[in-house]
Amino acid sequence: MSAVQTSVSPWWWMLLALLGVAVLMSVLRAWLASRERDREADEQGTTRAPPPVEIPTRLTPDVQDPVTGLATRLLLEDQLAAAAMRAEARKRRLALLYIDLDGFRPFNEAFGHACGDTLLREVGQRLSSMGRATDTVARMGGDEFLMLLDGDPDSASAALVADRVWHKLQQPYQIDGKDVRLSCSIGIVLYPEHGPRAKLIARADAAMMAAKRAGGNMHCFYEARMDHDAERTFDLHRELRSAIETHTGLALHYQPQIDGRTGQITGVEALVRWQHPDRGMLSPADFIPIAERFGLIAALGEWVTDEACRQVRAWLDEGVRLHVAINLSVHQLRQPDLVELIQAALSIHEVPPELITFEVTESAAMEDAKASLRLFEQLTQIGVQLSIDDFGTGYSSLSELRKLPVRQLKIDRSFVQNIDKEDDARAIARAVIKLAHALGLQVVAEGVETEAQQGLLMRWGCDQMQGYLFARPMPAANLRLWVAGDEVPARRASFRASLFNQGSDQDEPEDEG
Fold first, then answer.
1. Tally of helices (H runs) and strands (E runs) in the chain
2. Which helix (H) or strand (E) holds 54?
C-alpha cells in the first residue's frame, strides 16, 4: 500500500500564524482591560466581587445561622482567611466590626425567645442590606454579629460604616405589635494594623467590650492594652462564677442615709463588694458588667437580696430596726421569678417587708414602662418599698414616674455636686425636691460631700442625704462602731427607723444603736 504525499502551501502556514496572533492579542487585550478595571477600583476604594463561595444548595448549620440566615462564624473565618490573602497580595486593608446589641437580654427574658428570634432576624436583615457584595455579615451567637469589610477601608471609612450600623440598628422595630428600640456597641479592628488574622475576631471582641464598659451605644477601635483587658475579663468571669457558687469573697457594705432634719440614720444602702484573692477589694464597677455579660447577674442579685435580709434580721435581733435599700439591675427587672425569690428571702429570714427598699434606676424603669408597672405592682403587693435611683439621668419626667407605685426618688449625684457652686445646678435640685414633694414622693440626695451642699439641701427640705460627707460604704460591724462614735468621734449619729408611712411618728426619736 503506497502513501499519498501532499504538500502544504506556505500561504496556509502564514494564514494559521496570523489567526494565532489574533487570538493571542484578543486574550491579551481582555487581560489588560481586567487589570485596568482593578486599578480603577483601587483608586475608588472599592474592589471587584471575588468569585462566589460555593455553598451547597441546602445550607448546613456550619455555614448558615438557622435563626437569621446569615453566615456563621465558621464561614466568616473562611471568608476572612481568603480576604486576608487577597489583601496581603494587593497591599490593602480589611476591617472587622464586632456588633453587640445593648439591652437584648432583658428584652428576650421579658417577651420570650420567639420574639427575641424575630428581633434577631430583623437585625440580620438590616445588617445584610448595608453590606456590599464584597462584605460578609455573620452571627456570632446570641445578640452578637460580625461584619467583614473588604475594599481597603481605612480607619475613617470603618468608623463611618460603624456609625451607619449604629443609626440603622437603633431605628424602631415592630415586634409582636410592640415598638422596640435598641442600641448597639461596636468594636473595630483593621488588618494588618491590629495584628495577625488569627487574632482579629478576639481583638474586635475586646474593642466591643471596651465600648460596653464606656457606657455602650458607641464604637471603639482596638488598642494594644485591650488584650490584657480581654484576658482579665475572662479570668474575672471564671473567678466570679466560683465566688457566687461557693459564697466566698462576696460581701455587702452599707452606706448610711441621713435624715435631712435630725441628722439621724434613717437607713442604709447595701452595696456589693468582692474580696478577690489576688486583686484585693473590687468595687461593683469592676465586676457587675462581667456578671451581666456572662449571665451571672441573676445569681449575684439573689445572693445580695438574701444577704441583706440576713443582716436586717441580725440587726432586728440586736434591737435595731434599720431600713436597707437594695439595687436591682435592668436584667433582674426582666427576671421571671424575681418576686418569688424576694418573697423567699423575706420569709426565710423573717424580715418585715417594709424594711426593704428596692432601688431601680430611672432609665431601667422606663425602658419598658408597662413591664416595670406590672413588676412594681407585684413588689408593692408583697410589702416592699420602691425607689427611683439616679433621677435626672434618664429620659422620663416626674409625671411619668408618678404612674409607678414608688414612694421615693434619689437625685443623681451629678445634680448635687455643683449646687454650692453653680446657679443652674441649684435651680434644678431645688425644683426636683419641690415637685417630688408635690407628688407625695420623698427625696434622697446622693453624693453629698460638703457642708455647703448639706446646708442647701436641708434648707430646701430634702428628706434624706447620702455621701462621703457622712460616711463611705462600710461593713456591718464597722457601721455599729461608726454610729457609736468609735470610728468618727466628731460625727456621732443614731439609728432611726425609716418607714415611708410613719406620718407623725417621724418626729419621735428612736433609741440609739
1. 18, 16
2. none
* Pairing verdict, β 323-328 and 280-282: unpaired
Is the CATH number of domain 73-223 3.40.1010.10? no
pLDDT band for position 398 (cuts 50, 70, 90):
low
Per the CB < 8 A criterion, the answer to whether 310 and 342 are in contact is no
Place of cell 434606676: 361
Residue 432 to residue 456: CA distance in whole angstroms: 13
Return d(Cα 153, Cα 190) in angstroms, integer: 8
Q: What pLDDT score was predicted for residue 131? A: 67
Lookup result for grid cell 477589694: 281
Give the separation between CA 9 and CA 14, rounded to whole angstroms.
9
Cell numbers given for 359: 432601688
SS (H, E, C) 235-277: HHHHHHHHHHHHCCCEEEEEEEEEECCCCCEEEEEEEEEEEEC
Residues 6 or more apart in contact with residue 284 via CB below 8 angstroms: 271, 272, 273
Taking only the tens place, the pLDDT of each residue in 417-476 is: 889 888 888 888 898 899 889 888 899 999 999 999 999 999 999 999 999 999 999 999
Contact between 395 and 367 under an 8 Å Cβ cutoff? The reply is no
Phi/psi at 2 (nearest 5 deg)?
Answer: -95, 145
Give the contacts of 227 (CB within 8 A, at least 6 positions apart).
203, 206
Binning the chain into helix, strand and coil, the percentages to the nearest 5 are 50, 20, 30
> Which cell numbers hold the place of 103?
439591652
- The boundaries of every CATH 3.20.20.450 domain in the chain are 237-507
* Start-end of H helices in 382-506: 398-401, 413-416, 423-438, 451-459, 476-484
Model's pTM, two decimal places?
0.61
Say how far apart CA 293 and CA 455 lie, in whole Å.
Answer: 41
The alpha carbon of 223 is separated from its chain's Cα centroid by a whole number of angstroms, namely 20
What's the CATH architecture for 237-507? Alpha-Beta Barrel (3.20)
Residue 507: pLDDT band with limits 50, 70, 90 = very low
Identity of the residue numbered 216: G
Q: Measuring CA to CA, how many Å separate 120 from each of 65, 143, 208, 283, 293?
A: 11, 7, 18, 34, 18
Residue 383's nearest CA partner among 416, 358, 410 is 358
Higher pLDDT, 14 or 110: 110
Local structure of residue 423 (DSSP, 8 states): H
Continuous H helices in 52-199: 73-90, 104-111, 113-130, 155-169
Residue 511 DSSP code:
P
What cell numbers appear for 127 in the block? Answer: 445588617
Q: Are 124 and 145 in contact (CB under 8 A)?
A: yes
> Is 112 in contact with 371 (CB distance < 8 Å)?
no
